[in-house]
C-alpha cells in the first residue's frame, strides 16, 4: 500500500506554464535592467563608480584598501555588468520561447536547461556580484546614497523563485515519479 495520492503520479500540467511565465518575467526584468543601463548609461555608471570607490562608506581604514578608484577598471566592471545582463536576458528569452515550443511538442527538457542557465546568470549577478562583492567586499551597505542591496535582493528573490519552480517535479511535463 502506498501513502501517495493517486494524482501524485500524473503530470502537473500547470507547472510548465508557471515555469514559462516566471522565466519570461525574469527575462523581461533583466532585459529592462540592461536596456536602462545602456540608454541611461551615466546614471548607473555613477552608481558603479561610487560603490567601487567606496567614497560614500564609513571610510574605515581597515576596509578602504579594497576601494577600486581607477576609472578604467570601474568602466570595465560596468561594461561587464551590462554585457552579463544582456546575455542573461537573451538566454532567458530563448528559455521562454522554448517553454512555448515544448508545450506544442510535449517536451520541456531543453526549456528547463536554457532557463536554468539564464536564471543562474541572474542569481550570480545579483547574489555574488551585488550582494556579496558590492554589498560586503565594497561595503555598499554603508552607503546611504549608493546602496543597491534592496534592488539586488528583489532581483535575486524573483530569479530564485523562478529557478525553484523550473525544477519542481512535473515542471518538465513528466510525472513526478518519472523525474
UniProtKB/TrEMBL annotation:
Protein name, as recorded: Membrane protein
Keywords: Membrane, Transmembrane, Transmembrane helix
Pfam families, per the entry: DUF2165
Membrane-traversing stretches: 14-35, 76-102, 114-135
Organism: Streptomyces angustmyceticus
Amino acid at each position: 500500500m502506498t501513502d501517495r495520492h493517486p494524482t501524485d503520479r500524473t503530470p502537473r500540467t500547470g507547472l510548465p506554464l508557471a515555469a514559462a511565465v516566471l522565466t519570461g518575467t525574469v527575462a523581461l526584468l533583466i532585459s529592462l535592467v540592461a536596456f536602462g543601463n545602456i540608454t541611461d548609461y551615466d546614471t548607473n555608471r555613477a552608481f558603479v563608480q561610487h560603490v567601487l570607490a567606496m567614497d560614500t562608506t564609513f571610510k574605515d581604514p581597515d576596509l578602504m584598501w579594497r576601494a577600486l578608484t581607477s576609472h578604467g577598471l570601474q568602466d570595465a566592471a560596468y561594461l561587464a555588468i551590462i554585457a552579463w545582463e544582456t546575455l542573461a536576458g537573451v538566454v532567458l528569452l530563448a528559455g521562454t520561447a522554448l517553454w512555448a515550443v515544448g508545450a506544442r511538442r510535449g517536451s520541456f527538457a531543453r526549456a528547463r536547461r536554457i532557463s536554468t542557465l539564464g536564471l543562474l546568470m541572474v542569481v550570480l549577478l545579483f547574489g555574488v556580484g551585488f550582494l556579496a562583492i558590492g554589498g560586503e567586499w565594497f561595503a555598499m551597505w554603508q552607503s546611504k546614497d549608493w546602496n543597491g542591496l534592496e534592488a539586488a535582493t528583489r532581483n535575486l528573490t524573483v530569479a530564485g523563485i523562478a529557478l525553484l519552480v523550473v525544477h519542481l517535479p512535473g515542471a518538465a511535463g513528466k510525472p513526478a515519479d518519472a523525474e
